[in-house]
């Protein structure tokens, strides 16, 4: 037995050791490139587009799921539409304190590549120059007047690059250049440079990106594309970039979309070749490419003001689970980068989850936002004073200025717009004010009411219709739940200014209900904008086979009593 236990323990130890060794070997092999993808996975949701509805609205014309040339051309069209002017290459000095100013020193600007804070008067006669991130000799002259492209640099640093492509690990200008390889260069400017290059390609679509280290300047190309894509993913958006993007928009009207959303470059250029596919699809980290996305949301109908957490499941389950969330109508509901939905107003919106690794992998659901359920409300309270208190006969009451507070069953409260109530005269039972009115009744969804006192109605009026009144009574005095509403017996009388009046029968009015519900209290009939109301008395619908009506219960009791009396009589007779 001891021998057997020894071999079992030895086997377990070897298994653990082999697993650890295998993991270390795999990690070492993929570490260098996987770092870029993992950094993007961890911090992708920090991109400005995920935290600003203003920025999301800026890109509202860009359809979800666009890729390749379609996305590039649509971003080009958006940029051309939003960009109201370019400042001009010679005038850059006038704007650099606004776009590149040091937030800690109003006399200085932050220069590109080194990130140093240096004094700047607006003139380029000193130590500051302008860096053509897309070199002029390679077609950059077409965008050199755009504030988004030339960046302020120190003169002695500006000449180190020449017109070379951006290539990782290279320092010589004829085979590529990497800002991180210079003694003055900071590594984060890899990502910043990449996003400026991407912008130039959508600002002028004759400028193209290639996955090479060098090309003839006559071809108007830049690269190296796979390194630029990698840098974009590897290095987060810097605070200087977001400040600059906001400032550039205030100057020219347009934004650099790649500073707002780092997922865009891979959507456009990710399928260029095997190298770009590998960078954008995350194949270096050993995980499979996403094939589908599922949205999990427990409640697809929300009340205004409610929040709901949405989650996404990317298949296969071994794939990167990160998704980007989007709401098609941000006025109806917003969704955060973590999937938290906030319902804002009544309406419908489409919630979309898109794989951050493969932009064509996405799914959508429809979200319905409704007003807080009327069934949850128990009472209404009026606060404040309306902006208008004096009316003419024939006017409609305007509740603007009032605050309507609704109390829910759980004890919480919600604010209801005065326009959501039907305001009625208690004297004429209509929505038209007449000279005898001093108060109005607000009816909410035919179920709850609140009253406002303090209006004045003048008999002097310019209205042709000066009064609308309800006449008659309902033939049906009490309705059962589920029973069709029958307004027979009611009519609307309309009075005109010249003394003429006419009646409208109940069957010619449009009523707010067709079937009686257990909570309905008021039926409202409308004709050409004029309305009347009638109170509804309801009872329970006792047609169920599991219920006994009151009359049948009484009959059963009477029969039982009769049998009891007869039994006593028979018993006494035979004793």
What features would you describe in this structure?
The chain has 575 residues and is an alpha+beta fold. It contains twelve helices and 32 strands. The strands form twelve sheets. It has a four-stranded mixed beta sheet with strand order 9-16-15-12, with no helix packed on it. Strands 1-2-3 form a three-stranded antiparallel beta sheet. A hairpin with a 2-residue loop joins strand 30 (522-527) and strand 31 (530-535). 34% of the residues are buried. The model is unreliable at 1-42, 540-558 and 570-574 (pLDDT under 50).
Task: List its salient traits.
alpha+beta, 12 helices, disordered N terminus, three-stranded antiparallel sheet, four-stranded mixed sheet, 32 strands
Topology:
Layout (H helix, E strand, L loop, with lengths): L1 H42 L9 H6 L9 H15 L9 H9 E2 L2 E6 L6 E3 L8 E4 L19 E4 H4 L30 H15 L4 E2 L11 E2 L2 H10 L4 H14 L4 H4 L3 H6 L4 H8 L10 E5 L4 E3 L3 E3 L1 E5 L7 E5 L5 E3 L4 E4 L3 E9 L6 E9 L6 E8 L5 E3 L9 E7 L4 E4 L5 E4 L13 E6 L3 E6 L2 E3 L6 E8 L6 E2 L9 E7 L4 E5 L4 E2 L10 E6 L2 E6 L2 E2 L10 H25 L1
Parallel strand pairs: 6-7, 9-16, 18-24, 26-32
Antiparallel strand pairs: 1-2, 2-3, 4-5, 8-11, 10-14, 12-15, 13-14, 15-16, 17-19, 19-20, 21-22, 22-23, 25-27, 27-28, 29-30, 30-31
Helix pairs in contact: 1-7, 4-8, 6-7, 7-11
């Amino acid at each position: 037995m001891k021998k057997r236990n020894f071999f079992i323990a030895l086997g377990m130890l070897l298994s653990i050791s082999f697993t650890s060794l295998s993991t270390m070997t795999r990690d070492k092999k993929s570490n260098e490139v996987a770092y870029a993808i993992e950094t993007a996975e961890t911090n992708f949701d920090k991109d400005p587009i995920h935290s600003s509805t203003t920025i999301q609205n800026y890109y509202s014309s860009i359809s979800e799921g666009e890729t390749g040339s379609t996305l590039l051309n649509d971003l080009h069209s958006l940029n051309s539409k939003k960009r109201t002017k370019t400042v001009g290459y010679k005038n850059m000095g006038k704007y650099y304190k606004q776009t590149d100013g040091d937030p800690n020193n109003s006399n200085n600007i932050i220069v590109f590549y080194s990130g140093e804070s240096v004094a700047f008067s607006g003139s380029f006669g000193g130590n500051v120059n302008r860096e053509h991130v897309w070199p002029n000799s390679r077609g950059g002259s077409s965008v050199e007047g755009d504030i988004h492209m030339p960046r302020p640099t120190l003169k002695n640093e500006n000449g180190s690059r020449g017109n070379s492509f951006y290539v990782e690990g290279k320092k010589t200008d004829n085979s590529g250049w990497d800002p991180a390889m210079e003694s003055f260069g900071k590594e984060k400017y890899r990502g910043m440079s990449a996003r400026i290059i991407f912008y130039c390609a959508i600002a002028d679509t004759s400028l193209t990106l290639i996955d090479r280290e060098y090309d003839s300047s006559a071809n108007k190309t830049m690269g190296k594309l796979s390194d630029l894509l990698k840098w974009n993913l590897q290095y987060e958006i810097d605070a200087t970039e977001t400040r600059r993007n906001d400032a550039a928009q205030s100057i020219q009207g347009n934004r650099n979309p790649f500073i707002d959303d780092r997922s865009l470059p891979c959507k456009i250029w990710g399928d260029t070749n095997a190298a770009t596919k590998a960078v954008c699809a995350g194949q270096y980290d050993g995980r499979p490419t996403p094939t589908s996305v599922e949205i999990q949301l427990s409640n697809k109908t929300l009340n205004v003001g409610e929040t709901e957490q949405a989650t996404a499941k990317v298949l296969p389950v071994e794939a990167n689970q990160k998704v980007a969330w989007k709401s098609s109508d941000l006025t109806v509901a917003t969704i955060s980068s973590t999937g938290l939905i906030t319902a804002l107003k009544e309406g419908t919106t489409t919630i979309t989850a898109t794989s951050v690794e493969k932009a064509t992998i996405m799914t959508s659901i429809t979200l319905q936002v409704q007003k807080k359920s009327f069934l949850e409300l128990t009472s209404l309270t009026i606060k404040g004073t309306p902006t208008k208190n004096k009316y003419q006969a024939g006017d409609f009451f305007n509740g603007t200025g009032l605050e309507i507070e609704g109390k829910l069953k759980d004890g919480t409260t919600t604010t209801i717009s005065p326009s959501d109530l039907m305001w009625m005269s208690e004297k004429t039972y209509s929505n038209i004010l007449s000279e005898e009115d001093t108060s109005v009744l607000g009816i909410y969804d035919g179920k709850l009411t609140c009253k406002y006192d303090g209006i004045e109605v003048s008999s002097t009026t310019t209205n042709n219709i000066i009064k609308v009144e309800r006449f008659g009574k309902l033939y049906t005095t009490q309705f059962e739940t589920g029973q069709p509403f029958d307004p027979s017996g009611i009519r609307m009388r309309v009075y005109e200014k010249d003394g003429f009046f006419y009646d409208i029968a109940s069957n010619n009015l449009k009523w707010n209900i067709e079937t009686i519900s257990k909570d309905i209290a008021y039926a409202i009939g409308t004709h050409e904008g004029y309305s009347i109301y009638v109170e509804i008395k309801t009872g329970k619908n006792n047609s169920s086979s599991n219920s006994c009506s009151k009359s049948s219960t009484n009959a059963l009791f009477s029969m039982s009593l009769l049998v009891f009396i007869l039994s006593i009589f028979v018993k006494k007779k035979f004793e």
